[in-house]
Model the fold of this input.
Amino acid sequence: GAVVSQHPSWVICKSGTSVKIECRSLDFQATTMFWYRQFPKQSLMLMATSNEGSKATYEQGVEKDKFLINHASLTLSTLTVTSAHPEDSSFYICSAPLAGGRETQYFGPGTRLLVL
Amino acid sequence: AQKITQTQPGMFVQEKEAVTLDCTYDTSDQSYGLFWYKQPSSGEMIFLIYQGSYDEQNATEGRYSLNFQKARKSANLVISASQLGDSAMYFCAMREGGGMDSSYKLIFGSGTRLLVRP
Done:
């Protein structure tokens, strides 16, 4: 099946620094990718829709200036958490839909972010 | 607005028995898709099964089947012959619109933690 990768899988950073997370579709092209955030013992919450070649669409309550999304190619989307704070510590997971596929989106393995 | 509800925060099942995980949804769209994902402790989201709103038959994938009751807006997951490896979080999700087009966002329920007892 389709494969989506994320890098890094784990990141620990100091408060105030920026962290970039990459999401790649390995064997298919994705004009759209989705970024989710999952806090411990909670569900996945959609943060934004990443669109290749255009601006991302953010969900209500998500700060677009804090969570920068760049979808520069058909296989890569990046999420940058700017000036990270401890409350940004979470599990970030991306997904990419396979066009024409009934089984919708393929998820990356996720990135665990810990901000100290 | 679309909404997914999973009312069982945790479930136990004896190994080799069947278990049903509940999911109800709310949408005003006529075309939508319903999904179940499994999330083990590693965090990865594993696709299990899909049901389209226009599909007349309940979806089945191996030991997984989806009990789709459109009038009741429910899409329960049935796992037959439970295995120890089935212990995980299970999320129900919905995609509005699209039909065969999968580039629409998913909305997830709160999840059910399943524990399979030996």
User: Anything to note?
Assistant: The radius of gyration of chain A is 13 Å. Chain A has a mean pLDDT of 91. Chain A touches chain B through 27 residues (CB under 8 Å). The first strand of chain A starts at residue 4 and ends at 7.
